[in-house]
Amino acid sequence: MRMNQGVEWSVHVLLSLAWLDDDEPVSTASLAASYELPVAYLNKQLQALVRAGLLRSLPGARGGFVLARRPEDITLMDVVAAIEGREFAFQCTEIRQHGMGQEAPQSAFRRKCAVDSAMQHAELQWRKALAAKTIADIRAEADSHAPSAARLARKAYGRA
Amino acid sequence: MRMNQGVEWSVHVLLSLAWLDDDEPVSTASLAASYELPVAYLNKQLQALVRAGLLRSLPGARGGFVLARRPEDITLMDVVAAIEGREFAFQCTEIRQHGMGQEAPQSAFRRKCAVDSAMQHAELQWRKALAAKTIADIRAEADSHAPSAARLARKAYGRA
DNA sequence: GAAGAATTACTCGGATAGCCGGTGTCCGAGTCACCTGGG
DNA sequence: CCCAGGTGACTCGGACACCGGCTATCCGAGTAATTCTTC
């Protein structure tokens, strides 16, 4: 159960765009170069972020991607949902109703499967923590430990 | 990022074995039949549970699997770790150090990557919830809502 | 010199292969239970 | 009737194919900037 590589890339890209305080777009090529990532595949991930409403894409020459919301309004949960989807990792297939379960009265299945409930509860704790962390939070943490990051980002994307 | 099907199967199997209060082994064929699962593949998952120390296998005729610990001492975290492994879903590849990161001073990377920290914190919340739930807990919940489950399990595995 | 249209170059976007891990299956080694024969 | 040996059948365990999704790539549609021509 490994998470998609695209999640890590996406968070770092959003972080980079947050460091630029302007609204000028940044091309996929620039973003890929700044992290040494495959250009075309990164583009695919960015498209997912656009579909999820986290980024806005500007076509044409001098086009690229811009943040669609403020960094304070983008949570890690949003990013994970954009790349991995909104479905739960644990998918209950109701095997309790198969085999010997067929002999049980239907009333036994009125309540949700206890296994599914426990798994879902745990996963909700995970999502809760993800939803509590925003891109702005991470930017603040990184700034306090490595103040040069913002300057490097602006330089890498051709900002004066 | 979908969790292995084997996790659901394993929890239900452990639950079934918990309902039998004796130490007589149950064969893979019986377990598979009671949930309508593919025999050979279920056996593969059970082997993982044996390696993780959750089950004990008894070879030979009239052999099978028995719980290696009390249901109170088997957590959902143990089951997930046995099937999925103990590695974190989010794997930081330190892309912050690639590309433009190479121009940053080494001191900027003394602290752990803020993205990784946030992801790991969230995942720990998830694991914490999994570790807090035992097979005995789930059995108790199921018993309170569907008292016939234990009887059905004993019947399916040839108990008087 | 200014305006407008055609051209150009650059961008995103979706459609197209490759590869790894989960899914599913099979057969062999090993062990216990049972049966048989003898004492 | 009791016991020992051999046989048999059943079990787990690991080795072998199959498939879906993530990974990676390419090329085309579309747009903005640029350039050239004309007034």
Spell out the blueprint of helices and strands:
2 copies of one chain form a homodimer.
Chain A: H1 5-19, H2 28-35, H3 39-51, E1 55-58, E2 64-67, H4 76-84, H5 114-131, H6 135-145, H7 148-156
Antiparallel strand pairs in A: 1-2
Helix pairs in contact in A: 1-3, 1-4, 1-6, 2-3
The first copy, chain A, binds a DNA duplex (39 and 39 nucleotides) through α3.
Summarize the structure.
In chain A, 52% of the residues lie in helices and 5% in strands. By secondary structure, chain A is mainly alpha-helical. Chains A, B: This is Rrf2 family transcriptional regulator.
Give a structural overview.
The first copy, chain A, has 160 residues and is mainly alpha-helical. Chain A has a single domain, classed as Arc Repressor Mutant, subunit A. Helices cover 52% and strands 5% of the residues of chain A. Chain A contains 7 helices and 2 strands. A two-stranded antiparallel ribbon of chain A has the order 1-2. Chain A starts with a helix and ends with a helix. The interface between A and B is large, with 66 and 65 residues. Chain A binds a DNA duplex (39 and 39 nucleotides) through helix 3.
Provide tags for this entry.
homodimer; 160 residues; mainly alpha; Arc Repressor Mutant, subunit A; 7 helices; DNA-binding
